[in-house]
Structure formats: C-alpha cells, structure tokens
Amino acid sequence: MDEISPEPPLPEQMPPRLSRALGELDLPRGVARELEDDPDEAGTILLETAYQLDGAGRPDQARGILEALREHPPTPEDGQYASIEVIRRLREDGGADAVREAEGVLGELLRPGRLEPGPAGLLAEDLMEAGDLERALRCANIASRELLVEPAEDLVDADAAMMHPLFIRARLRGKTGLPMDEHDDVVLAVAKRVLRENPELDWDEDSDGWDEDVPGQGGGDVPPPGPLQGIQVLVRRGDFDRARSRGLLTDDAAQQGPDRYFRATEEVLRDSSGERPAMSFHTVLFGVDEMAAFAGVRDLDPADVATHRAWAHSEVPDGSPRLLAWPPGRNEACWCGSERKYKKCCGSPAHR
C-alpha cells in the first residue's frame, strides 16, 4: 500500500502570524503545497481556496481563511480583497447582526489613507450595485487616483483596459448628477477612439444604449454597444473529461483541468472587453456528441477551434438561450456552468 505523502509545512516566506493562523485551520489537501510552490501568490491562492470551500458547502472554513487573510495579509491588497469578500457574505446573510458587522468591516476599509486602488475599484462596483452611490464614488476616485493626477489630454490615447476605473467613476458621477469634468470627457473620447479603431463593429438598432447615467449621454455622439461579437465557444463542464480524452481540447489551460480551462477564457474576455468596451461578448457551451456530429457531416476536425466557431454560428442563432451574455451579474450563475455565483467563481477577485 502506498504511503500518503504528508502535507509540506507552510512556506517560511509567509508572514509568521498568517502561518500560525492557517495552521489552526483544517486546510484542504494541496493548499500548503500550492503555497510552497508559489508563496508570492499566497493571497490569491487563499482567496481562491475560500471560494472553493464556499462552493463545496463549507462556509465556516472559507470564513476562517478570509479572516486569517484579513488580519495577517501578505500585502495590504490581499487583506482588503478578503475584507470585501467578508462584507459580501455578511450582506448575503441579511440578519441585523451581520449587516452591522458588514458596516463595521466597510468602515475599516474606508478609513482615510487605507484603501488601495485595486480593492477600491472592486468595492466601488459593489457599492454602486447596492445603491450606496456616495461611498461608491469615493471608492471610484481612489481607484482612479493615478489616472486623475495625469492631465486629461494625456489619457486620450491610453489603453482602454487601463481606463476602466475612470469609466466606473464617470458612471457614478452621472448617477449622482454631477456635471462632466475633463476626465469624464476623456472617457467618452477613449470610447470614440475604440470605435474608430474597430470599424468592423456593426451597430444594431435593437442594442441596449450606453448607460444613461454616464455624464453627457443622450446626445447621440457615441453609438450604443454593438451586436454579438467576441463569442467564446467552449465544451460544457459535464463533457469536459470526455472532450479532453477524445482530443477535442488541446490547449495548455485544458490540461490543467476544467476550472483553469474556463478561467483562461474569463481572462481573455476581460482583456478583450477592456480593449473594446463598446463591444458585446457572449459564451456558448457545446456537447461532445453534437460537436462530433457537426464536424462529421462537414468533414471538419472536431478539435479545431475554427470548427467550434463554425458550429456556434451555424447551430446557435441570435437570441438562443444558449448564448450567454458576458459578464453575467455578480449574483447570477456563472457562465461556465459550475452552478456557483459568478462573483464566487470566474468573476472572483482572485482571478483578476
């Protein structure tokens, strides 16, 4: 009988108090080894572990990891991301005590000079969704601070993904009735530049308009988001192992398992949406048998990505319920089919 290899100790590079706190928890097997292999990513590994434990019905263990990360973070950002996750869980609880505790954690985050830009951007979106616009705008200003110190005219040619905090800030300024400032102007200028650089976009009369709350909207200067673009075609989770064994999935991410396979696509979608904020993106999942049948009739390679896209355009018409708009709402089911909420799966901050 083979002996089970013992778990390695937690790496020495981790903060000693964090190591001690984690040592008191029943961490899943393999987590210590991940931390040993990549101690610089301890915060991300622990956040992801908490999401996985939540999805596996072990919320108390997930909360224990988040609290350890909050109290003894490897970096300030790690602790703040953990605090945001604790706030989300407390608000989902809905009880009066939980709501009060969430407000206390939020108050700690919002102490002057504490909040880092990355967590501030995430918190701004959470607070905007909750209707807490004043504090959301405060967070958006923190998330945008490195951009706000730049002369607005110098940002016109900036990468659209880098401008995301200013897009959130512009929306919040519009929602709170503030007049446009020079950085709001540059947000619209970047959107127009993206459209000029992507003339293939074919605007659809039935597409939803730009958010009416963005300052200066309503004049028709910027067209609405385009129709279906950037479709990502992937195998459904239930067929993943069969698809991989039959050679339909050959990329490196697929070899690391279904979670990495779907999250690699999430990264592509995020990058693409940052570069083309006016474009709409969708995902669609296929079954092994239907892809094999489609390829067989047409004498195509069922493992070829081009075949997968041809299948989607041929077999999944516009308006089909199989076409999933990306990104889903934070509290909606994740597009990857995990049955977890998007914010706790592919949309979690651990994967940003």
Structure characterization notes:
InterPro entries: SEC_C_motif. Residues 1-25, 201-227 are annotated as: Disordered. This protein has 352 residues and is mainly α. Among the domains are: 1-114, no CATH class; 227-352, no CATH class. Helices cover 51% and strands 5% of the residues. The chain has helices at residues 16-23, 31-37, 42-55, 59-71, 76-93, 96-109, 117-129, 133-143, 145-148, 164-175, 182-197, 240-245, 252-255, 258-275, 288-298, 305-315, and strands at residues 228-235, 280-286, 324-326. It has a three-stranded mixed β-sheet with strand order 1-2-3. Helix 5 (76-93) runs antiparallel to helix 6 and helix 7 packs antiparallel against helix 8 (133-143). It starts with 15 loop residues before the first helix and ends in a 26-residue tail after the last strand. 32% of the residues are buried. Mean pLDDT is 80; it is low at 1-6 and 199-228.
Strand content: 5-15%
Decide which structural class fits the backbone.
mainly alpha
Given as residue ranges, the uncertain stretches (5+ residues, pLDDT < 50) are 1-6, 199-228
Strand order of the largest sheet: 1-2-3
Termini separation comes to 42 Å
Gross morphology is globular
What profile does the largest beta sheet have? 3 strands, mixed
- The portion of residues assigned to helices is 40-55%
> Would you report the number of β strands?
3
Q: Give the number of helices.
A: 16
Mean pLDDT: 80
Order of helices and strands: HHHHHHHHHHHEHHHEHHE
Rg for CA atoms: 22 Å
Pfam family, one: SEC-C
Organism: Nocardiopsis exhalans
InterPro entries: SEC_C_motif
Protein name: SEC-C domain-containing protein
